[in-house]
Amino acid sequence: MKYRTLGRSGLKVSALSMGTFSFGGVGDFAKVANHGVSEARRLVDVCLDGGINVIDTANMYSLGRSEEIVGEVLEGRRERVLISSKARMRIGEGPNDEGTSRYHLIRECERSLKRLRTDHIDIYFLHEWDGLTPIEETLSALDALMRQGKIRYIGCSNYSGWHVMKALGIAEAKNLPRFVTQQIHYTLEAREAEYELLPIAVDQGVGVMVWSPLAAGLLSGAFGRDLFPADSRQAAGWTEPPIRDRERLWNIVDVLNDIAHARGVSAAQVSIAWTLSRPGIASLVVGGTQESHFRDNIAALDLELTAEERERLNQVSRPPYLYPYWHQHNFARDRFRAGDWALHASFEDLGKV
């Protein structure tokens, strides 16, 4: 296993984290999987044996059942791993059962601690933006939880670029805790994060953890133009992440399969290796329904793509060169810094556009 520093913190996280989205199987989460304690224990054992030191969950995964299973499975070995969890999503019918208010965050953190059977959460994420609660209130609540020793580090998830920068600016101005990480969706198929979120990661030192790095299995090699597993979550009606251009997706999969065949590895390993090579990436949160899925993902850490392979993948998946970026490409390249290159390096082969 390889370990990377999470943002500007001193915390070392494994290049792969274990996702527990499949634990519990309550409600719509049953479309993904329904791992009980015994199945979850086997999967956790595989991950720990492989050197993974982060287990990721959330209060709303199977309405808290995922956290309960994580807590039971880690009984007696809690100190071997870092736990990340989240709050913000709706978890009840009441008016304060969602959001990032002081009331909601403190209550949900304390509930999560009980379910996880631990006295602290190592990385606590705001699971989604809340435009109604002042950032000052949210960060102040997280500060209180940190001072009480209930959380160690904080992060955001699914924020836009201006949301992240607003929070970082207020944190600095008010001497409040600063995000050390952001958990985002980022894959060969979904590269929108390169416009703002990856540049912010590099420039501001906000380490990136990626959720669903194989696009819910679509980039694993198990799917293709004429290949759609009947037992997949998509077949069960799961629609996240949305795919807006199916032909582009299958073109990407074709190149993944070509490289995988030539290298004697899986398409999933090629996809993981590409994502881990991108700027600002600290860890990929991988899930799986079988032990073999996790073993295959862990094996990807031994794969280093060539410059030619990376360029093939870049060409087939490169996002549109939106304004103002094409204008910056034409007139500002001689004054770029590392954060700028997190986007613009993918377009360096272009002349004036």
TrEMBL record:
<dbReference type="Pfam" id="PF00248">
    <property type="entry name" value="Aldo_ket_red"/>
</dbReference>
<dbReference type="InterPro" id="IPR050523">
    <property type="entry name" value="AKR_Detox_Biosynth"/>
</dbReference>
<feature type="domain" description="NADP-dependent oxidoreductase">
    <location>
        <begin position="16"/>
        <end position="316"/>
    </location>
</feature>
<dbReference type="InterPro" id="IPR023210">
    <property type="entry name" value="NADP_OxRdtase_dom"/>
</dbReference>
<dbReference type="InterPro" id="IPR036812">
    <property type="entry name" value="NAD(P)_OxRdtase_dom_sf"/>
</dbReference>
<dbReference type="InterPro" id="IPR020471">
    <property type="entry name" value="AKR"/>
</dbReference>
<protein>
    <submittedName>
        <fullName>Aryl-alcohol dehydrogenase-like predicted oxidoreductase</fullName>
    </submittedName>
</protein>
